[in-house]
């Protein structure tokens, strides 16, 4: 049995997936570059940078508290993170993970589920709002769409004061990978009572789904009446809990919406990588 990889460590197998998507520095081929004396440190190895970002995401540690003796300059790590975020690296990694997951297992399109989950965001300068369920404290909300196995297909982040149904159309349109067109397969969408109403039903049907909107306790009662009944909506709540296991996402301390969203995209990519192995967290 091989050495157990901690949740904040990057295995060789995962790095092999990540490495092809690392942004390559762009240089002007018509110019010659010469390093000036005292011109700063050498570029950090991409794997070390990525490992540091995963360490922050998993443990929830402050960027400036990263162990310098392990990862190098914390400010440099954060600068790489911001640069990669602007280059769309974390989104492309999530998309690549979904494509590989679809090839290996097949995205379970037939039964999808949608829901929103609030989180504290005391420092948010963007996509923050008063949380009506947390005494009006500042918070954000993740609205997600998942497949039948709980794999994230779409993620939208707003202020905690935005109702789930207000983002329904954005979430359904925001899938980062397209599904195969199979007329004989019905795409079902499961949601809780927060998505009741004619407007929500219209949005769901316009997106090509058959709606299954049920209050939280109704599936449990149905299961008790009918042992053959298979609950479907709960998987989105499980997916929200998977995201909360990344401690940097449990409480949002990122001020910028783009930075928090990039970390969320990275978490989604890690969830997919672990889902393909049959485990989620370890």
Regions with pLDDT < 50 over 5+ consecutive residues?
Answer: none
**Computed structural class:** alpha/beta
Order of helices and strands: HHHHHEEEEHEHEHHHH
Number of helices: 11
Description:
The structure is a single chain. By secondary structure, the protein is an alpha/beta fold. Helices cover 39% and strands 13% of the residues. It has eleven helices and six strands. It has helices at 12-18, 46-59, 68-71, 74-86, 89-104, 168-173, 198-206, 218-225, 234-244, 247-250, 257-275; strands spanning 111-120, 129-130, 138-146, 152-159, 188-191, 210-213. Strands 1, 2, 3, 4, 5 and 6 form a six-stranded mixed β-sheet that branches. Strand 3 (138-146) and strand 4 form a beta hairpin. The chain is globular and about 75 Å long. The two termini are 16 Å apart. The model has no long low-confidence stretch (mean pLDDT 88).
Quick overview of this protein structure:
The chain has 282 residues and is of the alpha/beta class. The protein has helices at residues 12-18, 46-59, 68-71, 74-86, 89-104, 168-173, 198-206, 218-225, 234-244, 247-250, 257-275, and strands at 111-120, 129-130, 138-146, 152-159, 188-191, 210-213.
